[in-house]
């Protein structure tokens, strides 16, 4: 089946353009040291995997978030249309600390240029994040019991590391 062979050979891993790469460097620079290190290691393992690298290119959609932006997100699904995406008001989320910021949100760039928040891809990436640093907490499994179906608020794109600052777990 020459055509199948040709199409599988021509299948390209999605790559960031130079503008996207610049934004990624800026977002990664906002992240707390342990989180940035875990992300960098997980990313390099992902890109080194012949199957995963074709499935999508992980990227940081958000790291530091101002209190104003947090309040805008909080309004979504309450005083503004859209689904609820957070239970934290401005200043309450780990995204509002720093920089250095102990939280980041991750998605995947696909080969066609679209963005995916696939739960399957995120769970695979979460495993690599936690393999890189066991302190990483994943919003798809806050209590770390290997299951997502017992979480009150699933936030699969979200990763965080503990901080010395006040607060605690589940600060999406
Ligand atoms: Zn988040």
From TrEMBL:
Location of the region described as Disordered in the Swiss-Prot/TrEMBL record: 147-172
Superkingdom of origin: Bacteria
Gene3D superfamilies: 3.30.1380.10
Cross-referenced CDD domains: L-Ala-D-Glu_peptidase_like
Organism per entry: Hymenobacter lapidiphilus
Protein name: M15 family metallopeptidase
Ranges annotated as biased composition (Basic and acidic residues): 147-159
Classification via InterPro entries: Zn_M74/Hedgehog-like
């Amino acid at each position: 089946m020459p055509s199948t062979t040709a199409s599988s050979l021509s299948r390209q891993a999605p790559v960031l353009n130079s503008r996207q790469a610049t934004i990624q460097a800026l977002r990664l620079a906002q992240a707390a040291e342990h989180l940035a290190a875990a992300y960098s290691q997980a990313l390099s393992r992902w890109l080194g995997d012949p199957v995963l690298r074709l499935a999508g290119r992980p990227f940081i959609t958000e790291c530091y978030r101002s209190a104003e932006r947090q309040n805008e997100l909080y309004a979504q699904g309450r005083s503004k249309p859209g689904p609820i995406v957070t239970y934290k008001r401005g200043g309450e989320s780990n995204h509002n600390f720093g920089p250095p910021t102990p939280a980041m949100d991750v998605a995947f760039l696909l080969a066609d240029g679209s963005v995916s928040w696939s739960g399957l891809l995120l769970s695979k990436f979460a495993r690599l994040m936690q393999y890189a640093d066991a302190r990483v907490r994943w919003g798809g499994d806050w209590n770390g019991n290997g299951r997502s179906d017992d979480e009150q608020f699933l936030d699969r794109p979200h990763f965080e590391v503990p901080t010395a600052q006040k607060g605690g777990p589940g600060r999406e």
